[in-house]
Amino acid sequence: MTKVFKIGGNVIEDSAMLEAFCRDFASVHGPKVLVHGGGVMASALQEALGQKPVKIEGRRVTDSDTLKAVTMTYSGWCNKTLVSTLQKYGCNALGLSGCDADVIRAGKRAPRVLSDGVTVVDYGYVGDVSARSVDAAMLESFLDLGLTPVLCAINHDGRGQLLNTNADTVAASVAAALKAELICCFELDGVLADRNDPSSVIPAVSTADFEKMKSDGSIADGMIPKIENCLYALRCGAAGASIKNALRTADDSGTMIML
To answer: What is the pTM of this model?
Structure first.
């Protein structure tokens, strides 16, 4: 079974964690895909270029200058750092953005009403993707050649426009399109029952559990989209979904997400 792993920029930025993750990821048997973010580094580059990163409800507003910065970060430094490190450990990785081989097309996000029900925001050059956005046959052809696709969050609309997309959504969409197992990796060991106790990992979270945890406030804001994307992947055909520590990819730890 194909496995789709997702890591964030915090893993890439930490050289020791990056080395450990790439070593373990390279040892995972069978076809696999890696999707990555890099938001922290993108913000740092923006600031170095004299830009002010703007996020609204957790999403980056992407004007033309911001698009250049995130493209340089995601499809440049982050992607090639991952690919070169994976090659070091014997994993024949192939770095891609969505426009490469037309593997993922995105639709430009329309202006949205925020959670206050009143404010309308145009996020700029931001794209949305779904399982239908992914050329599964093309990705499978790379896998059949023994290559490991490494996908960043820069995609395109098919008409020459690059778009900044959410890496978690990209990973969920790719897992669904490939009928693969989705494994979301970050700094903790899984979904925690107590945010202040890193050992309080919940073995499994269902849709009903998730709704209850949201209503009682027992999960942090950053965990909500992770679980939502796992549930989306499962509803759209992914073979499984879990959230775990980026340093424990080879074992059965973490939190399984279920419908």
So the answer is: 0.94
